[in-house]
Amino acid sequence: MVRFLLLFFFFLIPLQRRELPQQRLAWQMDGGDVRNIAGLCRQYVQKKFEAQKTFSVEALLQDRGMVRACYMAHFFSLVGKERTYLLHELKDKEYVQWLLEHPEVFEKLSFARASGKNTLAVLRNIWLKEGKELSGVGLNMALGAALISTSREPEACEARYDFYKKSFAEKKLFPQFITLEPWEFGILFRGRESIEELAWAQDYLAGKKKIKAGNAGYACCGLIPYRMKNKQGISVHAGGAFYDHKPISLQIYVEYGGVCGAVSKGAAGFVKAKGIPSYTIGQPGHCAFVWKGADGEWKIGNNIYGWIWSEGGSGGPWQGSVSTITELPRFWKGKDAAASNLCYYLSLLAADSQKAEVLLKEALKRNASNYPAWQALMRRKGRLAEKDKLALLEEFKEAFPGNPTLWEYFLKKELGLDWKKANGYAVYPGLLAENESWDSVDAYMRNFCALARKDIPDMAGKLPYEVKTKRIFFKNWLKFYQQNKVDRKVRVQTCAVLEKALPPLLNHEKTALQFLGFYGQVLDLWKDKQLSARADACLTAWLKEADKASVRKKMAEIGLKVADQLGDKKSLVRYAEAHAEH
Asked: What is the C-alpha end-to-end distance of the chain, expressed in Å?
């Protein structure tokens, strides 16, 4: 059944590349299932590795037959991940030849990571419909339709393709549409809205001239009225009763309105009608959505709290935090992205672990924004010392600037630290950006608070770091101590937590000042000589390490009060001198 596929693949290439024994090859050809095809391609790649006397990544990248085999191995492995399948569409010799003449098909499908047993069948149906020729936007559209065959019937996949092809021809779509890759078309075509809804939405938007490609994800939110109650006074929280038990649709959202869920789902549906992929995400007590902007960047619509407080998965082919999708455009716009991507996929096929690691390092050398390569590399670096892993975290931050959401995910899920041994107070400051952006501070603070709640058990449930109160966190913490009787155990634990947190923060000026300010306030509130004596020892040591003028000045201010309480004249002089320096 796959005889023609294998014949074309192995006999259209130069003879010197045929390194698999003919008897085994024939046996596998007769088997004719996706796992056999994947196995053949994988073995072919591995034989190419073994054939090199001196391992050369550059030579591998230039070998077109091996590149094609690499992506075919990944594609067919994914299709046969759960069980093997027989792909009847591969009986079509002409279709198989077309596939082999267009290696980008398997490259794009492999990158999307969403193929199934009907993927090539849907693609073939569209290929036949288009006169056996697909290229450019049409090919990407067809691949996107094929990708959603894992969750929809083939006829429904093809119907989406037809609808958007017609909409494009009628100029009803925004410019983002022609820039989409297959995985992005997959997001677009998976939308829950019916084709009838999307057609209605296109007509409805025809008169909304203020809604443009650049502002669509924001402006479309205004199409759905924000209402807590309907005209009959029924609350939105009553569910179907709010909508008079009518089936939910874009028309119903426009007519009845709703709260954040309706606004985000409705707006996401409207931008999809204009050919822009989108999907909903969660924020604390809120529903938002992600959409692709006219500049090619992924953005949040109906946003309140930003990426750092969002959840719901990455949405794209790279698995990670919700903000991972924002790195995909930057990766592909970066230098040598295709070669970096290929190095990553080749590494997954390498039988030799050293060669696999060489390929992963080459992938990151060519383009440091290759997130899957980072993930794969860390799986191979499990035995690294903690300090070496934290050094890699700094490299990772440089590769993905301005994305603390991803840093946090990488630190906690990918870096492979032994959290039973790791000192979180020393590790989590690594989440702070050089400029201590609000997002990076939030990433640090919520992890600090998790540690503090464990180390001050009586404060469990009383130390929330939440979106609505995060900017007055220390104020609220101090207020709680001022208004409640706090036993000495909690006082000692609180000071111990701050004394563990502060040393790694001394180079982070804004955050260090926040912690020092609170530390000084609780010491002044409690006036406990034992705690003050301990603080004197800490401050003395910290002053030797700190080099930020404002941080040293704040330490000296606290030290002066502590020394005064202790009646330590030498310390008073020392702190006064330190204060006078600034």
From this structure: 81
User: In angstroms, what CA-CA distances link 193 with 153, 223, 249, 272, 576?
Assistant: 16, 16, 7, 9, 69
**What residue spans of 274-403 are helical by DSSP H?**
327-333, 337-349, 353-366, 371-379, 386-399
Interatomic CA distance for residues 498 and 432, integer angstroms: 17
Is 508 in contact with 432 (CB distance < 8 Å)?
Answer: yes
Using a 10 angstrom Cβ sphere, with 0-12 exposed, 13-18 middle and 19 or more buried, the burial of residue 143 is buried
From the list 352, 506, 372, the residue with the least C-alpha distance to 426 is 506
Token digits for 166?
Answer: 């017609």
In whole angstroms, give the CA distance from residue 136 to residue 129.
16
Are 106 and 96 spatial neighbours (Cβ–Cβ below 8 Å)?
A: no
* CA-closest candidate to residue 312, choices 273, 276, 268, 257: 268
Contacts of 284 (CB under 8 A, 6+ apart): 305, 309, 466, 467
* Max Cα–Cα distance, the chain, nearest Å: 94
Let me know the angle formed at the C-alpha of 330 by 328 and 332, rounded to the nearest 5 degrees: 70
The whole-number average pLDDT for the span 138-142 is: 98
pLDDT at 400 over 50: yes
**3-class secondary structure per residue, 392-461:** HHHHHHHHCCCCHHHHHHHHHHHCCCCCCCCCHHHHHHHHCCCCCCHHHHHHHHHHHHHHHHHHCHHHCC
d(CA 408, CA 84): 38
Consecutive H or E run containing 556? helix 549-566
Helix spans in 130-235 (H): 136-147, 154-169, 182-189, 195-205, 216-219
Cβ pair 13, 1 in contact under 8 A: no
Give the contacts of 542 (CB within 8 A, at least 6 positions apart): 502, 503, 506, 555
Q: Could you tell me if 325 and 315 are in contact, meaning their C-beta atoms sit under 8 angstroms apart?
A: yes
Using the structure block, give the residue that is written with the tokens 């949405």: 315
Which pLDDT belongs to residue 82? 86
Query: Is the pTM higher than 0.85?
Result: yes
For residues 516 and 539, the answer to whether their CB atoms sit within 8 Å is no
How far is Cα 312 from Cα 264, in angstroms, rounded to an integer?
14
Give me the sign of the Cα torsion angle 256, 290, 160, 316.
negative
**471 DSSP 8-state letter:** G
The model's pLDDT over 64-113, given as tens digits with 9 standing for 90+, comes to 989 999 999 999 999 999 888 888 888 888 898 899 889 999 999 999 99
Q: What is the pLDDT of residues 31-65, one digit of tens each?
A: 458 998 899 899 999 999 998 889 999 999 999 98
Residue by residue, DSSP assigns 50-93 as HH-SS--HHHHHH-HHHHHHHHHHHHHHHHTSSS----GGGG-H
Which amino acid is located at 509 in the chain? E
